Amino acid sequence: MAKIDYYFSTLSPFTYLAGGRLEEVAAKHGATVTYKPLDIMALFGRTGGTPPKDRHPSRQEYRTIEMERQATLTGLPINLKPAHWPTNAAPSSYAIIAAQNAGGGDLGKLVQGFLSAVWAEEKNIAEDDVVRAMLEGAGFDPALAESGLLTGAETYAQNLEDAVSAGVFGAPFYITEDGARFWGQDRVDALDWHLGRS
Fold first, then answer.
1. What whole-number distance in Å separates Cα of residue 142 and Cα of residue 25?
2. If DSSP codes are grouped into helix, strand and coil, which group holds residue 37?
3. Burial letters for 92-123: b for 16+ Cβ neighbours within 10 Å, e otherwise?
4. What are the DSSP E strand ranges found in 95-136?
5. Is the pLDDT of residue 1 over 90?
6. What CATH number does residue 192 fall under?
7. What pTM does this model have?
8. Tally: H helices and E strands in the chain
9. Which of 29, 101, 106, 107 has a CA-to-CA distance to 141 between 20 and 30 Å?
10. What total of structural domains would you count in the chain?
11. Do residues 153 and 33 touch, judged by C-beta distance below 8 A?
12. Cα distances (Å, whole numbers) of residue 39 to 88, 148, 149
């Protein structure tokens, strides 16, 4: 069975714009997905990237154009200037880690729920009631929002180290068991092609 390490940030607009395509591709090929949320701003600092607010105006402008274009192509609603961005991604990331460890729900739905909350629903994913609602909506025990915080913090930090070691520099980023790397929501088709060849 193929395995995919999925590095992402619950603050990333391009992770949001991937929608549920990763899960569709994984199901098609019988692949398992390990969800590895990370601190995207720390990743930028470690791998030569620049946070969006510090980029040259032409890069900021193009980022907005591409977000709008990708939203149109995917049919996903998007607020280009969400009320709660950036916010603290740790609570949502810890919840995803706890849910993955607990099992029993739909991790893809949970991840997309947090992303939709930021980019389409004007919700603050750092707030406990939002985290609990997302967990419950994806079929997990909402109490996971308060459990496993130490494990969540340790795993969240380790995910960053794993990402840097694996050559990850942005989000979303997909790495297959044979080491093939794919960066961006627009590379899911290439991931699909690669898995079909394996």
1. 28
2. strand
3. bbbbbbbbbeeeebbbbbbbbbbbbbbbebeb
4. none
5. no
6. 3.40.30.10
7. 0.96
8. 9, 4
9. 29
10. 1
11. no
12. 9, 18, 16
**Angstrom distances, CA of residue 76 to CA of 20, 35, 108:** 11, 22, 16
In angstroms, the CA 21 to CA 188 distance is: 7
The identity of residue 174, as a single letter, is Y
User: Which among 5, 4, 48, 49 has a CA at the least distance from the CA of 158?
Assistant: 5
Domain range for 50 is 3-197
Q: What residues contact residue 121 under an 8 Å CB cut-off, 6+ apart?
A: none
Region of residue 82 (phi > 0: left; psi between -120 and 50: alpha; otherwise: beta): beta
Which residues does residue 33 pair with via DSSP β-bridges, in sequence order? Answer: 4
pLDDT digits (tens, 9 = 90+) for 127-180: 999 999 999 999 999 999 998 788 999 999 999 999 999 999 999 999 999 999
| Strand-pair category, 32-37 with 3-8 | parallel
CA 171 to chain centre: 7
Q: Which segments within the chain are labelled E, that is strand?
A: 3-8, 32-37, 173-176, 181-183
Alpha carbon distance 101, 140 (integer Å): 11
At a CB cut-off of 8 Å and minimum separation 6, what does 168 contact? 7, 38, 43, 47, 175, 181, 183
Kindly give, in sequence order, each residue whose CB lies less than 8 Å from that of residue 106, ignoring residues fewer than 6 positions away.
138, 139
